[in-house]
Structures are given as C-alpha cells and as structure tokens.
Amino acid sequence: MSNSSVLNEEVPQTQPLLSLPPSKAQAELLKLAESYTIREIEAEVAKGKKAVWGGMGWELPLVYACDTTPISVLELTREDSRGSEAIAESEHLVPVEFCSVVKSIIGKLSQRKHNDPIKRVLWFSSICESTNIAFELTRKYGYDVHSLDAVNIYKLSDKRPEVIQHLVNKLQNVAIWLTGKPVDEDRLRWEIRRSNEITAKIRRVMELRLNNPVYLGSFQVLMLMMGYFNYYGNADRFAKILDDLAEELEVAAKYHDPDSYIPLVLTGIFLGGPALFDVVEKAGGSFVAWEIFSTRDYREDVPPLESLAHYLLDGQIDGISMAGAGVHLRKHNVERLLEQTKAKGIVSGSLTLCPIGSVAPQIERQYFKQHGVPYINIETDVHPEPPTEEQVTRLTSFIEMLS
Amino acid sequence: MDIGSRAAKGVLLTPDSIYTEQVITGLSMQKTADELLNQLLKTAALRRSKIAYIVGTGYGRISIQFGDIPYRVVTEITCHALGAHALNPGTRTIIDIGGQDSKAIKVDPATGKVVEFVMNDKCAAGTGRFLEKTATTLGLELSELGDVALKAKSPFQISSQCVVFAESEVISLKARGGQENSEETCANIAAGIHYSTARRVKSLLSRVGLEPELIFSGGVSNNPGMWQVLEEVLDAKFTRVTGINMTYAGALGAAVDAGRHVKPKIRVHVRTQQPVSIDFSTIQKAVEKEQTAFITRNDGSKKAGYICAYTPPELLTAAGILSVRLYKGGDTELVSQGELYTQSIACDFSKSTLGAFAKGDPLYRAVDKVYNFHVCASLKRASEVASLFTTSELFSLPRLRRDNDSHEFFKSELLAFRKDLEELSGRTISAEDLHQQIVLYNKLRRILKKISELRKRPYPVISGQEYVDLVRAYYYLPPQEALQHYEALYRQLRNLPDPEQRVIRLMLSGSIVADGDRRLLHLIENELGARVVVEDHCTGLRPFYHTVRESGDPFQALADGYLDQAPCARMKPIEDATEFSMQLAQEYDVDAVIYSSLKFCACYALPQIRFIEGFQELGLPVLSISNDYSQNDHGQLKTRVETFISVIQEKRSTEHEQFVSAE
Description:
By secondary structure, chain A is of the alpha/beta class. Chain A contains 16 helices and eight strands. In chain A, helix 9 (185-209) runs parallel beside helix 11 (235-252). By secondary structure, chain B is an alpha/beta fold. Helix content of chain B is 47%, strand content 14%. The chains are: A alpha/beta, B alpha/beta.
C-alpha cells in the first residue's frame, strides 16, 4: 500500500487539519483487524493449521514458533456477550457479581463445546484469579487448558536465577504441549527478532503520533496495540501497515495543532468497542500514552526461552499491568508516561466488577492527587453498547475541567 | 399469616370456607399481624377465641406473638410448597417472586414437602423490589409496569447485575429515548427489566431443575408482563390455579400447616444437649493473653504476620520470630475501612484485612513485617496494599501442584523466605532448626486432626464453632504452648461418653471462615440445632489433614508438604479440591453440605458448580450460600438454612428417629 500522494504534498503549517486525505494505512489496519476473526481462523484450522485460544501476552513469539495461531480470548466476547453471560449465570451458576469477561468466556465456550475446532486454551495465570477458575471450568466442556503458571516479582532482587529457570521450564512445557517436543530455539530466536522489529515500528509510530495524536485516533491505536499481541495473524502485512502509518504521521505532524486536544494518559483499558474512545475525542481529549502496552524489546543476548522470561519479569518491574505488575508499580510507569508525553491528566479504564483491577485506581487516585495530576476512573464491560450517560458525563466533564 | 416485606397476607381456614385478607406491612410486625388478624376476623365474622392455631411465615414471622392463641413459625419456603400443593396437588416446581426475594422450590407432589430449593441472596435483582424501583424511575405505579412491558416492540438490554446499576441504566435509556418516543421507550425499558428479572429467576431455577407442573406464586405473580416473559425465557408454561390469588400461596400453606396442628400432635425437633460440657475457656483465655503479649512485647523480639495457610510458620518459628496469622473478619466496620482501597467489589475477608491495618488494629500494627505466599489474586492485592501500613513481602506459590518443577520452584521461594527471615531476625535458620519445627508442627496437625475425628461419633463431642475456635490457638499461640493445650483437651474429650443420639451432621465447605465470623456457625448450631462436624476451609480442619515429611532435606519436605496439603480451590487441577471435599464429607458421614462462599471470592464462588455436582454425586443435599460479613440479612439467611435443615430432617425422619411426639 502506498500513500505517496500524501507524502509528496508540500503542506503549509497553517493548513487546517481537515485537509489531510483519509488515511490509507488506517483503512488497511481496519481491514486486517476485521480479517482476524474466529471464523477466519476456524477456516484456517479446517485446512490443517493449529490455533489456540490465548494470544494475549508476552509468550506470543513462542506460540508462533510452535506454528500455532493465537486467537485472543476477548474474541469470545464479541458476539452476543449478553447471551453468553446469561448462560454462565443460569447453567453454570456463576454468581452475578463476577465480571462480564469471565461470564462471557464461560458462556461462549460452553456454547461452542460441541463444535469448536479450537479446543485448546493457553492462559497466563498470574493476573486474574477469576479467569483462571473460568478456564478450569471449561475443561469439563472438553477444552485442553494449559496454564502458564508464572510468577510475580516486585523488585529487581526478586528476579533470581531460579525464578528465570522456573519460567524457562514452564515455557518449554508450553512448547511440548503445543507440538509434542521442545521448542526449536532457532525458530524462536527468529520470532523474537521479528517481534522486536515490529515493536520498534510501533515505538516509532507512537513517537510520531505525539506530533499529531488527532490524526491517529485512540481507538485506532488500540487496534494497533491489539495487533501487537498477534499481528492479526499476518506479521508482514501488519509490519507494512506500521511503516505506512509512520510515513503518514510524518506528514500529519505538519498539521499539528497542540491546542486542538487535551493530551491524556490511559491506564488500564476501555472494553466494549470504540464508543468511549469517541466520547473522549468528541470532548476534545486524546490518549497520547497507554500504560497497558509495553514497547520493551525482548533481549537477544540470552537464550530465547530465557529472553521471554526476562521480558515478563522486566515488564512487572516496569509496572505494566498486562504483565501482572504489582499494584504500587503501575503508578511509576504512569508517571514516566506523564513525563514523556506532557499529558495533562490520567484516565483509568477498569473492568466493572473486577476486584483485581479496582485496587490500582484507588491507590493511584490518592497518589496523583497528592502530585496534582487530575485522575478519573471509568468502569466498562465487554458489551458493545452505547456508553451510559454517567460515563459520558464524567468523561466529558473531566476533559472540560482540563481545558 | 405471611408477613412479607411489602404486604402481609392472611388466610383463615374454617371447616367450610377460606377467607383472605391483605394489609401493608408496617414498621411494627406485631401491629401488622394484629391488624391482619382483625381484618380476617371481621371478614369471616368470627370471634378471636375461635382461632385454634396460627402459623406465621414470611420475613416478619419471627417477632410476632399471640399470647392467647397457639402460634408457631414456619419458613415461607415450606409454606409456599404446602400452599401450592393444596391448590394444585400435582405441583412439582414453584417459582415464588416476592418483594425482597425470589425462590425456586422443588416439591414432592405426594406430600407437598420441599425436596430442594434455591433462594436469591440479599441482592435485590430478580425480586419485586427490582420491579418497584424501575416503576418509580419510570413514573409508573407498580401495578402498571407489567401491562406497559407487554406493549414493548424492542425490549432494551438491561444489566442483570444489580438493582443499583440497573437504575442508572434505566436513567440513561430514558435520556436517550427522547420526548417524542417516551411511551415506546418506557415500554422497552419496562420489558427490559422484566427480561432481566426473568433471567435471574431462570438462573435460580436451573439449580433445582424445572419439572412440570410449574406454579408461579408470590406478589409478582399478579404481574401479566412477568408471567409472559418468564414463560418465554423458561420455555415452559405455568399451571394456572383458580380460586385464590397466588399472592396468598404462602399464607395458605401456613394455614394448612396450622390445620395440621389443630389436633395437637406436634412434631418437635428435640434440641439435644451435650451430655458433659468441656470448658474451652482456658485455651481461649490463653489466646487472648498471648495476643496482648504479642502487641505489648517490646524486648526487641521480631514479630511477623502472615495471611494465608500456605505460609509455613515452621520457618518463622525456626527464625525465632513471633508470628500470628492475620485472619480477623466478620466486622462490618473493618470491611468499610478496607473498601477505601478496594471499593466494594472484593471479598469481605480481603477488605477486612486491609481494614484492620487501616483502622489500626493493635495486633496488625504490632507486626514488624507481613508475609504472604499469595494464594488468590485478591489476597495478593491486599498484601500489596498492606505495605502502605507496614513492610510486606510476597512470595509466589505455584498453582500446578502436580508438576515436579512446581515443587522445586516452591522450595526456591521458601529459601528466599528463609533469607528474608534471617535478615529480619538476625538469626540463621539451619536445616536442624527447621527439622525440629516440622516435627513440632506435625504434632500440632496430628492432634488437631485427632480432635476433629472425635466429631465422627454420632454425637460429636465438640461443635463446629468450638473446633474453629480451637484452631485459633494454632495461629496465635507459640506452638509448644498450643500443643500442651490441645493434648490436655484431647484427653478430656476422648473420655467423654459416647451417646447414641444422632444429630443432623453438616459439612461446611468453601471460603475462609475468618476469626470473628461466626454468624453462620451460630445460626446452624445455636439457633437451629444442627452440627457442623467437619470443615473444608482453610481455618478449619483442612490445613491439618496432612503432615510434612520428617526425613530428608527439610526445605524440600516443607515445599512438598505445603504444596501437597489438602488444597485450596485456587490450586490446579480443581478436581483435587472438589475430590478432597467429597472425601471429607464421606469420611465424616455427613447428612448434607453447606457450601458457603464469600461474595467476590473467585476461588470458591466461581467454581461452586463443581463442588455442588460432586456432593450431589454422593447423594448429599447441598445448600449454597453467598456470604459476607453484614449482619442485616439474618432473617433471610435463617429462612434458607432452616428450610434446608428441615428438608434434611424430613429426609432422615423415615430412616432415623429424630422426632418425638409432644404436646
């Protein structure tokens, strides 16, 4: 894909933003994301390809090195999530007070149990207790659930050689579970290099985006980051989109109007689709930094399984919540992001009824209040429904307050 | 008389007529009952002295008295079953939706007795209150809501989680609907609420199963919208009962029960007394004394607290550190303090732990350091937040208990724990030190298991409350002192006479029972006369069921012993936890199981279906309770447990002589 027409233009600094042509790279990203569906992957599985539910984390290069396509468990929440929830509650006695992710997963896998060609689940068990138990329950539906029983560390001195070795053993077990044999280290090394190359491209896109965050909307960034977990099943195409986006952003930088938006840091995530991101942007806000995603490289100076182990543990020390970071560490990561981006406020997205995710906002609210940084927490769920009036009012008022 | 939360219903049976009356439930239950009785007498043109017997039911049943008329209370679940059976003898399943609760009841069509039931917990979703709240928000009378719902063309999706959330959703939907479509919007919202309620009821019903003939009773049964939506959601038809409004089903059942008592052959459960009482106060006094000493001791000794039963006190003692398990709970004040850090959506135990630190509980504040081998993510978070108040150190605990490398890794974590303890205490922990402590703690585990086994007798010599109170000594006293107390106590207990008399024997399985959380045990044992003879939770028998190997490398033995202990449901595979629970139930020959999970407890509330299925496989009735530390739902909890115990009694009455006739 090319956007040379954009690149060749000489654009005066004062030209209004609207005169930029529609982004071809973003359209291509949308197309790629839309092609990464359960149905598409099922079709691939029917042709003999291996797939696994999971694909949300740091172990991704290993899954690809085992010739397996990872599919995010969040895909299970896309269709009829309300119906899935109802099944979880009524047929599997899941109490109502559990979150929509857990209920949707249990309900959907229970519905799919007789005809799901993807009967394997790989789950990193160090983050959410409810999801761990949810997958334990799905074993009764015939799912082969492999739990990556990882560890949590809170300071650098916890990163002991035995901890690394434990993780290496666990990762090797994943490879054996997926392929019946230990991982091909050369292949894994290659996957790590590929991941690092893509990470470098994402870093570049995010740096360039700081010069015009309005050009690449927040929901599009979310799509980009989600692709980072699985490349939407096509790493080459994803990498090309990132290059094209970077080129477009270089042009878009010339249209930068720093007064046209309020820069914000997003901690956690908004689930349920683009609606809340739209609310933020309509109110004049823009997420310029995302706490939940790490853009750290995998180390290439150590054996490849060990590299994955370091990646996880370093992510925890960095305070990345997706890595299972401790509740006090995340705020330091957010502080770094605030410094890097000069964001004016913090919006935290937490999952309604998530006892694990609800603690960090409580801690951070107090902490950032003391430091004079405005902070708001918005709860969301997986249901792709319009935002509630309460969410709209709170978000809009928060951004108005920062204007 | 069925004294409900919104209305009090009365049915008066005479040899040739049935009279019904209804009054609004006031603040005083007694005044409400008196008013209702007067109305009934007026309608039937009878004098008060003609009333032979009154049975009271409904949530207000407990506080009523009639000095001049024989009176007894029966739960509304039993009464709804009797009432529905009287009206339609083929009834097998009842859905009862009242003002503050909803129930699914399975009935024996031959007798009208309850076979199985499920009742909502105190959450108002799925109850008449839920509908009433919506009607108010929509500016409708409650009686109009069902008819309005029937006009809906495209019902809105409403969260089925909570009446509070639903109210905010309704306000959002109203705002979105706009003025021009207000009637249609109103109908769609009303229908959405009906569907949401119906889904909750379906969830309840799925636990007892739906067998025709299905009866709909309670105040909400008058709502035509709910009638239609429930039939659609359940894919079933209700049996229509004529002759009486089904709002009166509970009161009718009470009247039927009263009729059985007119010829006074009353079956009364004999509350058995423990033949010889043992004084447990010595050990409890020792615990209180030691707690005070722990708080006030200021001689340079290091003091540590730990939260989870997977933290081995052997190492703490070997380091010369005084230690206590931090497991206080049951106090709503502590819960609300904890919510400052967790919001309301964590289990009450996690919140209490944080609340105790935040409030400055002297025991919690006395510790120099908190350690936790974290089991569940909630307690992991609580331990992390505890570092706001004291230093804390967390270690990883592998979940995959059957993997060899989990055992190796856990040993490495224990070695890291040892290093930290050595730094805290300034004392080296040798293998020999640890070995001695393993031997000592094994003695404690063995004696606690032996004491527990005395509960296998037909009449257990120690109650469930007494057992969990004894366990406090393990967690609060120095081990040698605890051992002396336990040994002395065991000698007394084992020599007690062994009466043949058999009580209702229950197992309590599920989430942690905190130190201070005795409400359920008190209800079961003190108010309802049954006995908890064994526990599968981490502050009862479970941690003492196995011992730690006393040979070889003591660190590896400790790792193996703790990972292989009777498992918490957090450990994988979950079958290890469910099978252990089933094994205990059989070993202690229980009549039934009460499965009590704390609200928001992922480890026990979420997988409850696996436990319930396991107990049912053994033919054991199970009552699942979603619990917390609040004190204001005692009546509702009592209704459920009382009905459950009466179902077990009925079941057993044909096999055992549990009841005697009495005036």
